[in-house]
Amino acid sequence: MARAIEESVLDFILVKNTRNGQNGGFKMTLVDRELTTLEKDIIVCSACTGILREPVLIGNNFKCKSCLEPDEDGRASELRFDLTDKLKINCPFMKEGCVWKGSIANIIDHKRHCQFFLKRFPNCPEMDTECSFKQYGCEVVKQRKYMDKHEQDFQNKHLKLVVEHIKNTDDTLAKLSSELGRLKIEMNSKFKQAEKDMKYTFGGIIFELPGIKDKMKTNQSYKTMEFYVGLYKFQGTIYPNYNNDKNLGIFIQIVRGKFDEDIIWPFSGKISITLLNKVNEDNSISKNFITEGESAFKKFFHESTAIGINKFATHDTISKNEYSGGDSIKIKILIQFDAH
């Protein structure tokens, strides 16, 4: 299997001689230029057309040693020069994105580290690989073909690393479990203390309803975004033309939240709803009400139930530019309640 993988790697680097089926010269491209005609006559194999590998001279032609025909072997003169150190080439994976440039002699070493080569030949025996016990502390990096021997030779060391890792993991888990328990007790204590110490909670939203002129002609309702005040979750509902009565209606309700099982019921508090005056905020229209005893603020509520004011402001009022300038109105909802 390893031999087949290595042959596939060589096939990618070397030109295949179609006449004898052997791997011939290098199929590399020179850095930043093409070969000149003179260079081709000197450094290109006349048989496989790759860059000469182990060059020999047969008559007036240069060939790779592996490209010789059987009857040429006795007449070939092996040359004493090696082109692999002199020619600067690109990585065979240049088109895939590798920017390495170097000599042919260094391409074999480069392929052990080339990420693009590794993707193409993930099981190449010459590729550097990490020890499978790295997660336990072994930092050895070797060629894949030597890694099995390393793991066999160091079985005892690896076993000790695994045992130490398990021990450290158990110690860490014990410490985390203890710390988690302490934090849980601390958070519960702080939560209960906060309930006792906090006299009231205060918060809300400002909601802008665009296209108010057209919306005043319909009997549709519009929901505000959901929002939390303290641990309670609220939502407002705006009726630009409540029951076609030419009045603005505004309602508020509690909706289901993620803290419902941990907070005090029924909810009671003060709700303030304001139609903002865009010219002079002092002339804004505000109305307040208390929620004590209202069904919308009990724990087991119907989410369609809400309380509010169905005649908050007439169409004549909100049609004034100071309230609906820019074809929108702004409504502020503030909520204040006792935390008990």
TrEMBL record:
UniProt xrefs under Pfam families: MATH_2 (PF22486)
MATH domain sequence ranges: 199-335
Signal peptide start and end residues: none
Name by which UniProt lists this protein: MATH domain-containing protein
